[in-house]
Amino acid sequence: MRPDLCLENAGRRYGLRGPWVLRGVDLTVAPGRLVRVEGANGTGKSTLLRLLAGIDAPSEGRITGRPRTAYVPERFPPALPFTAVGYLTHLGTVHGLPRAAAARVAAEWLERLGAAAYAGTSMARLSKGSSQKVAVAQALLAEPELLVLDEAWTGLDSDARAELERAVAERTAAGGSVVFVDHDPLRLAGLPDATYTVRDGSLVERAVPGPPPSGPQVTVEVQGPPDGRLPDDVRRTVTSAEETAPGSHRLTVPAPHSDVLLRALLTARPPWHVVSVARQADAPGSRR
Ligand SMILES: Nc1ncnc2c1ncn2[C@@H]1O[C@H](COP(=O)(O)OP(=O)(O)OP(=O)(O)O)[C@@H](O)[C@H]1O
To answer: Which PROSITE patterns match (predicted)?
Structure first.
């Protein structure tokens, strides 16, 4: 089993005498966890995410248990001498995929994110939104154990935003961890296992739960073996699960995650029988 990623007494400052941006930070990210990081502008959220992503090192303290990690930075360098699909294929091979498989996965991600039409466009000529889709695709194509998302939804159209939410659900359902920063307080509302606020160089875990899940929910009635325990990837995807009779469960999931849940149920061993799928009305005050 993969170990937890741990920051122990981690501090970061820029320059030998620069002020400490982060100091004495302890944080554990276990496999399968979804973690939100928030805080006012300039408090050190991106600094923390760069440490977690492994592209920067703490000035003091240490990090242990590094998993296979992918990162969507706040600013993605678009002016690279590649086409979109060429760049993603190249990265796929860097992650160890054979070239043909890398090209296939690259094309699949561009398709999922609605950027297939730009596959052959040079990176330097991509719009900001398409460039952001490439930034997201490069992180997802290697199915990382830890996905670090720094404002990754910014600049995406609504279909791509929903697709990225689905991809987050897929990663956590598969036992991967996801750490994200997003300016929208309702992003993945109700789903994070933990939310931390960066304040005065420290990390404070938010004790109260975040806002309830926004947007439409889907209720899935399933039947499994009488003594059956819900598969791990199913439990990690749902917002609630209730056993209504021996072997019968009512599961609730945000609508964008319902196909991830259904796939997990249908591929479970032994298989689970999906009795019904019903979409509930939007929660009051929710938005897409
Ligand atoms: N490479 C760097 N060199 C020097 N100072 C830096 C560097 N990166 C960040 N800082 C400083 O560290 C502090 C925290 O920056 P950081 O980008 O981590 O904050 P943030 O919370 O992500 O901000 P924002 O919400 O504006 O994205 C800021 O004062 C910033 O100026």
So the answer is: ABC_TRANSPORTER_2
Single-letter residue type at 53? A
The answer to whether the complex's ipTM is over 0.95 is: yes
- pLDDT for 172-185, tens place per residue? 988 999 999 999 98
Q: Give every CB contact of residue 48 below 8 A, 6+ residues apart in sequence.
A: 22, 25, 27, 37, 198, 203
> In 3D, which of 173, 167, 172, 170 has the Cα closest to residue 153?
167
Whether residue 287 has pLDDT greater than 50: no
Degrees, nearest 5: CA angle 155-161-164 = 115
Nearest to 84 by CA among 17, 151, 141: 141
Q: Which residues pair with 146 in a beta bridge?
A: 69, 177
Q: Which two tokens stand for residue 19?
A: 């002020």
pLDDT band at 225, cuts 50/70/90?
confident
- Residue 259 is given by DSSP the state H
**Residue 21 Cβ contacting ligand 1 at under 6 Å:** yes
Angle between helices 258-266 and 158-173 (to 10 degrees): 30
Give, using CA atoms, the residue closest to atom 25 of ligand 1.
41
Task: Give the position, in ligand 1's atom list, of the atom nearest the Cα of 181.
Answer: 22
**For residue 70, what are its two tokens?**
């992918």
59 lines ligand 1 (CB under 6 A): no
